[in-house]
Amino acid sequence: MIINEYRVINNCTEAEYQVAQLYATATASKNSTGGGEGVEVLKNEPYEKINEKTQKEEKGQYTHKIYRLASRVPGWVRAIAPAGALDLYEEVIDDGWMSDICSTVSFRLGMRTLTVKQNGYMKENFSIVYETLHVDNSRGELENALSINNEELKKRNVIIIDIANDKIDSKDYKAEEDPKKYHSEKTGRGPLVDPKWQKNCEPVMTCYKLVYIEFKWFGIQGKTESYIAKTVHNLFTLFHRQLFCWTDEWFGLTIEDIRKIEEQTKKDLDEKRQVGTSPLDQSSN
């Protein structure tokens, strides 16, 4: 098992980030879908229920997604994995209690989120578990923000992500998504050209993301876990670069606005998955 703690410092407030991440998630989902692959939203709807422990009414948002990822895994995994084995299932319950039946659950506890991702084929032999804490006015300085035990602290690797200066693959680079070039007209933020922008920017908040990666498959466990860790690191970096460079798109939106965007995104994803070719098909031509 690999335990990595990623600390992503952002030039926004924690309240702004709540809207920004939902907007960026919907937009990024559309950008990565097509040719039979990408994100399928099965449900995205409000829910109400009575908490059996407290007998209080709970309200929140329930989302169930499938991530079809065949072209996004290395060839040596595709060669041995059966058809459909590379799909990931995600069930998200915002501001609610964990479901007993879901294969992937995300639930909000204030500014804290716990997510468990599993694969329908490998079940408990493959999991990506990450716990996230959003902290306002933080610059990544909290040494044990998620309060893990001493045994896990010894295994934990701390990785501070700099969205402006960390290197990314050339194939992923887009000038319009470069924080060192982007300037927000609405907020005046950016470009992030100061080498010490993480220490000097205002406003500021940090996402502390503790990630546990386990892939129990004899012969390829270590190699696969390392590949997944690298992929997670890359995804976090690219996602937060986009989130910053889309500031003028999400700034000022309300949660009600976001729900409307998510509803339209579901329709767009259903259409996009049926057209075009996947990256795997393109590489085989």
Question: What topology emerges from the helices and strands here?
Answer:
Elements: E1 2-10, H1 14-31, E2 38-50, E3 57-68, H2 75-78, E4 87-94, E5 105-109, E6 112-119, E7 123-136, H3 150-155, E8 156-161, H4 197-200, E9 205-215, H5 221-245, H6 247-250, H7 255-272, H8 279-284
Parallel strand pairs: 1-8, 4-5
Antiparallel strand pairs: 1-9, 2-3, 3-4, 4-6, 5-6, 6-7, 7-9
Helix pairs in contact: 1-5, 1-7
InterPro entries: PI_transfer (IPR001666), PI_transfer_N (IPR055261), START-like_dom_sf (IPR023393)
Domain Phosphatidylinositol transfer protein N-terminal: 1-267
GO molecular function, one term: phosphatidylcholine transporter activity
Protein architecture, described:
With about 280 residues, the protein is an alpha+beta fold. It has a domain at about 1-35 and about 110-255: Alpha-D-Glucose-1,6-Bisphosphate, Chain A, domain 4. Helices cover about 30% and strands about 30% of the residues. The chain is built from eight helices and nine strands. The chain has helices spanning about 15-30, 75-80, 150-155, 195-200, 220-245, 245-250, 255-270, 280-285, and strands spanning about 1-10, 40-50, 55-70, 85-95, 105-110, 110-120, 125-135, 155-160, 205-215. Strands 1, 2, 3, 4, 5, 6, 7, 8 and 9 form a nine-stranded mixed β-sheet that branches. Strand 6 and strand 7 form a beta hairpin. Helix 1 packs across helix 5 and helix 1 packs parallel to helix 7 (about 255-270). The chain is globular, with a radius of gyration of 19 Å. The relative contact order is 0.24. The model is unreliable at about 95-110 and about 280-285 (pLDDT under 50). One of its GO terms (molecular function) is phosphatidylcholine transporter activity. Pfam families: IP_trans. This is Phosphatidylinositol transfer protein N-terminal domain-containing protein. It comes from Parasitella parasitica.
